[in-house]
Amino acid sequence: MQGGLKQDKEGDGALREVKVPVFPESVNDGTIVAWHKKPGDAVRRDENLVDIETDKVMFEVPATEDGVLQQIYQDVGAVVVSGQILAAIATGVGSGAPSATSTGATATRPVHAEREPSAEAGGSTDRPIAPSARKLIAERGLSASEIAGSGKGGRVMKEDVLNYEAVQGSPEPVESRRRAESPAPIPPVAAPPSPVVEFPAGSRPEKRVTMTRLRARIAERLVEAQQTAAILTTFNEVNMQPVMTLRKKYKDRFEKEFGVRLGFMGFFIKAAVEALKKFPVVNASVDGDDIVYHGFFDIGVAVSSPRGLVVPIIRNADQLGIAQIESQIGQFAERARTGSLAIEEITGGTFTITNGGVFGSLLSTPILNPPQSAILGMHKVQDRPVVEEGQIVVRPMMYLALSYDHRIIDGREAVQFLVTIKEQLEDPARMLLEI
After folding, report:
1. Cα-flanking dihedrals φ and ψ of residue 204, to 5°?
2. Does the annotation count 379 as an active-site position?
3. How far apart are CA 39 and CA 44, in angstroms?
4. I need a labelling partner for 299 at 20 to 30 A (CA). Which of 14, 168, 377, 393 fits?
5. Candidates 29, 36, 41, 406; catalytic one
6. For 366-380, what is each residue's pLDDT tens digit?
């Protein structure tokens, strides 16, 4: 039934199509990974029916109407494209439209009108709200009634919530409440649990598992980076004692004031921005025979998720304070683990920072994130003996690694870039004074 669905004979009910959402230009198709309803189940408008995985993000496809899921046309594992019909919903249950009983189910749940977020979560509204948008509204404690909807019929979409936040700024009081309810924050790049692989019985068992679309895309981009760029890595080390002392002194006050944990990543992003300003070629990219210099600083932060590594982008990092940066990182990390990052949040970027230190890595050579020309690797902080003013002292040291495209970045610039970051971190006041 791909040619359209017709109204029931009495006109009391109708079959409504559920279609694949329109993918962004950079996404060609997706794979159905899970249906949350089966034929005969009652569904509510905007309730998530099916998850579609692309090579970048997971899309949720909501029900378009209240009713009963009449039929599913695409099973789990099917590859689908924008606009393709996924299912049909019978509307007007009890008034002539097919019911769950007529489709073979024994019973249905009552179909209730969808409730929007309560006053505790920021107010209510009669407008439809997409599931991903509703989740963000509840998480951030926003008022749904204040957010303009750009979807059909004024429907509030996820991007509407993000745009609203960008204009209004981070909701610190709400974050403070969330911190009080959940005092143990999720580390920005903490390791997700490793997938459990069950082997068949036998003395030398093997199991073949198809890569997820995200894992396949990661593999493709890493190979592309190795084959198209002249990657070279330079190293330095930084004494983390000044940052650790500053953080210890102010972390409780910072958290109380802004409602977010004061971590290391905010300092590194601010230091990287200052270094990028001094060496613009590190913030550039190669396009054919051209070098594209970017006059903005969109910093990617590598985050581990159960589906693989993703790199959400801190936009205009030069215009943000450390509290805003830390807040965004925490939100991105949480949404990475739930698979709810929007595609616009993980595309673009002019420079990337990855932190292998949270996994115990002492030293590594990170691979570029195309089309970017450089990536900074952070590592484990470890006490080591160093010489200061002729005396051997023990300091918390971290190795830094800068992998860069030697086609446009010379060794002198790469080394000086790392030295600048080192100087910023070993004297944090430099970041405040921008010197």
Report:
1. -135, 70
2. no
3. 14
4. 168
5. 406
6. 999 889 999 999 999
